[in-house]
Design brief:
The structure holds two protein chains of two kinds.
Chain A lengths: L2 E9 L2 E9 L4 E5 L6 H9 L6 E6 L2 E5 L4 E2 L7 E4 L11 H11 L4 H14 L15 H13 L5 E5 L7 H17 L3 E6 L2 H7 L2 E6 L2 E6 L1 H6 L4 H6 L3 E9 L5 E5 L2 E5 L8 E7 L5 E3 L9 E13 L2 E7 L4 E6 H7 L6 E6 L5 E4 L1
Parallel strand pairs in A: 3-9, 3-10, 7-8, 8-9
Antiparallel strand pairs in A: 1-2, 1-4, 4-5, 5-6, 10-11, 12-13, 12-15, 13-14, 15-21, 16-20, 17-18, 17-20, 18-19
Chain B lengths: L1 H12 L1 H5 L3 H24 L5 H5 L2 H34 L5 H9 L6 H12 L7 H8 L7 H25 L3 H9 L4 H12 L1 H17 L2 H6 L10 H11 L1 H26 L2
Helix pairs in contact in B: 5-9, 5-12, 7-9, 9-12, 10-11, 12-15, 14-15
Classes of the chains: A alpha+beta, B mainly alpha.
Chain lengths: 357, 275
Amino acid sequence: MTLDVDISAARGAFQIRAAFEAVPGQTVALLGPNGSGKSTLVATIAGLLPPVRGTIELGGMMLDDAEGGSHMPPERRPIGVMFQDLLLFPHLSAIDNVAFPIRARGGARSDARERAADLLGRLGVGARAEARPRDLSGGEAQRVALARALIAEPALLLLDEPLSALDVGARVRIRELVRGELARFPGVRIIVTHDPVEASTLCDRLVLVEEGRVTQIGSPEEIRTAPRSRYAADMVGLNSFRGRLEPLEDGAGLLVTDEGSVVAAWPEGSDGGEAMGLLRPADVTLSLQSPAGSARNVFRGQVTSIAVEGDRARVRLATAPPLVAEVTLSSVQRLGLRDGVIVWASFKAVEVQVLPL
Amino acid sequence: MATDSRSSPSTASSPHRRGRIPAGFVVLAALGVALVALPLLGLVLRTPWSRIVEILTSETALTALRLSLVVATTAAAISFVLGFSLAWVLVRSTFPGKTLVRAVVVLPLVMPPVVAGVGLLAAFGRRNGILGSWLYEWFGIQLTFTTGAAVLAATFVSFPLAVLALEAGLRGLDERLEDAATTLGASRWYVLRWVTLPLMAPQIAAALVLSWARALGEFGATITFAGNLQGRTQTLPLAVFEQLQSDTDAAFAVSMLLILLAFAVILSLRGRFLR
């Protein structure tokens, strides 16, 4: 029951070209910034938007074949979609929303409602079965929508931004719930998200989508080790510098980017050219005075944001190139860091990992 | 009613705004209300309340009432079915001349009903109607002076109201809900029956009630095109018109019945659909 997508689709002036595979038992994330074309891709796989070119195959069944002129209408596809805005039917109670896919396929009302009640119970909203969608909390509505996508036992589960509408507290609970449901779902699982944390905590395989193109496919670990774009690197939390690598007199290299240059150790066997430099945020040292050490990369700039994660803080700097530094909370206090403070950031050339492109 | 009770706290909380209303407006506003209220008051006072049951249960009144209900209900049903399809086409497709189509369809709203009747004669008249003469020659069907003609006249004037209400309903519908339904396995018919129509329930009710009320009150087009034949085309308004010349008490009684029906329509709209 492998899903095999290789299509071009167009909605208005927007075009997306994507090819990827998803196998049962694995959760695949379609990860990309807003406006990258993910929802167009969702509409195409769901059958709402026939592709302009290419094919979509699910377990040997041809869902779309643009060249061959075949298009299976959405109502016949074995796909359960949970939409970003949920799209629960406002005129139906929670239980009738969940029973809808069974009723629509000709199932008996009592049987449909019974199965819907069971599933709502499993997802922890059994008590809200008779409530209308407008009376449900965000988390409850999310559970009802998930139940509606699952109930007809589709071969492919497609969750579009399953957590984005939730507040932080509900998000943690629903993420655990979604993770559990994904684990017991036997078919192909796809999650569409713009949130790297969501992607890396729920998914085994990432398909990065940027500006209507798939830019990289791999496990979170593979992408962390060798990100191929700024977005990929940012997504896994590394500083990345993409530019031309030029030799310096002392044998080191200078990575020249559009936003500034970074000194890096010359990669063995490289002869320069297009390259990506990666730097762990924890390797960036911050100070209030010009640093006295041996670091060859020294930049001065303003703090633009500080995000606290546990006992560490990620500090964004408006340097050239822009940097993210990861420091301890005690450093934040000692240096008096807050938005707008001007600091020096430094790191050693050997800490920049250079990947030829 | 609902609107009044909701607006009273806000006027109470801003008394200065109430105090600023110019005296001239108050006088003119009162004149406007009087313009509508005085004829109503006149009707109430002139209605022969002691004879009203006798009049309304008379053969003439009952026949007219029965015919009015049949004509108005049929016209509302036809307006709904045709209006829903037209609203669908207007909202969900683009074609050249769409603006013109909409303009033509709503024209009966502002057209003098007697002109509508003349137009209907020109289309369906037995001798000169562009379709009517053909119908008569080939099938022997004569539409004029039949109940069918009364229905056609009533439909002509009530159709635009149905189209406008249904168009607004369809336009306000979140189409993504219909898309979601198809991904959940629903066929087009299932989506229409269980998603589209229920979501449009308020506008469907408004379309039915408004077009029914308009059809019930139809006079000019009916008398021109269908004539005033008791039992066949004499609906309540036509009965009022005829009784005005013979039995004014009966005219007032039947008028009061029509007023009460209209009032019921307004109440149902304000309470549920117009909010």
